[in-house]
Amino acid sequence: MSIRLLKSKEDSGFPLKRRRSFRILFHMKSVLVQCARPWLLVALITVLFLVCVCPARSQTNNYEFNDSHFHLTNNIQEGPNIHEFLNMMGTKAGRVAIFGVPLQQQWSYRTDGDRAPTYYLHSDAPLYYYSFTDALIAMAYRSLTKEQQARFDPMITGFNPTDMYAADHIRRVLETFPGVFTGIGEFVVHKEFVAAKIPGEVASLRNPALDRVLDFAAEVGLIVILHNDIDIPFASAVTKRDTEPAYLNEIKALFKRHLNTTIIWAHTGLGRVVAPATNHLALIEAILRDPDFRNVYTDLSWDEVAKYVVATPEATKQWADLIQRYPDRFLFGTDSAAPTDQSKYLKVFYQYDPLWRALDPETSRKVRLSNYERLFDEARHRVRAWESTHIPAIP
Ligand SMILES: [Zn+2]
After folding, report:
1. Region of residue 30 (phi > 0: left; psi between -120 and 50: alpha; otherwise: beta)
2. How far is the CA of 185 from the centre of ligand 1 (A)?
3. SS3 (DSSP) at 244
4. Quick check: pTM over 0.70?
């Protein structure tokens, strides 16, 4: 699927429908002259509304999914250019929340010699915050046409969440690249092996610097994607008992402190070596059920999480049952990082196939498509409004 083909598909959308709606409007006018009954007027206005407005709202109905979690680059800031990635999205992915990876893996010659690491697990050398990632993402976005840009929600990630100045970085990125970003993240607080590889202060859910970031996100309307493992790595093997997950209470306290911030808790707190405890779904349900956490959503992303969801038919059914009880609170994301071709990009979506089959069609559509549209559209709208009042126009 080439970009040219995609463009012609998009081009054929609104203008054609708009022309059709004008013809209908003209026809309606003559009908209205003859029939003055109010109920008929209401019915006709409703039809007109559906013809004119609905196409703009169901913009991704023809795609398989929207991707709420995508890294254009890897740990060394390499990846496909955004035009190549558009080809990978093809007719499968409608819209994508796009970001880099804020943590750069250092190539330490003293540690690794000529073996250049490309992933955080490839080396004992440290990771460091690489703020230029936000400029890379913004410039990639700006290289697209307006129609292509409409399919992306760029996210700011290049800040250190232990720094009281982190919120100032986010503000500066918005000021430098107005009209581009929709949210912040995916950024990491507690994550297996990653958190310990960053020199300096260890990130914490209790750090006021993080509160400052989330307060600023609420003020601007930025949607937040936060990675925070629910527990330490290999928890049941390490503790030898079924204890409460290490970070559960802290993350709940954080969510409660920021009721006006829309937060997507990535992976429901699971990860490569953070397996779901036997009561994991009950813990997640307790959050989704509680009105105090109405600002919290979660994403089903990452092959390392899909492996738990599709491990057995029973596991898939339990996840599907939970999602169907809270169909508005889950989003699908690939968590693909710097894919080299379409099959690699789509791998996680197909890995979740047993889940897609287990969900009723309406819930499946919400998780794959419409929850994304609702949340990211609202964030886009709010961020643009904040920018229009807080960023002086360039003369
Ligand atoms: Zn993550």
Report:
1. alpha
2. 9
3. coil
4. yes
Cα(186) to centroid(ligand 1), Å:
7
What letter represents residue 344's amino acid?
K
Distance from Cα 389 to the centre of ligand 1, integer Å? 33
Residue-wise pLDDT for 215-252, tens only, equals 999 999 999 999 999 988 888 776 656 678 989 999 99
Ligand 1 centroid to 268 CA: how many Å? 10
Look at residues 64, 68, 63, 128 and name the one whose alpha carbon lies nearest to residue 97: 68
* Ligand 1 centroid distance, CA of 68 (Å): 12
Token duo for residue 229: 């493992």
Residue 222 C-alpha to ligand 1 middle, in angstroms? 18
Cα(102)–Cα(77) distance, rounded to whole angstroms?
9
Ligand 1 centre distance from Cα of residue 267 (Å): 7
256: number of Cβ within 10 Å: 13
**Which token pair is 107?**
């190539």
69: left (phi over 0), alpha (psi -120 to 50) or beta: beta
- What are 175-225's pLDDT values in tens digits? 999 999 999 999 999 988 888 888 889 999 999 999 999 999 999 999 999
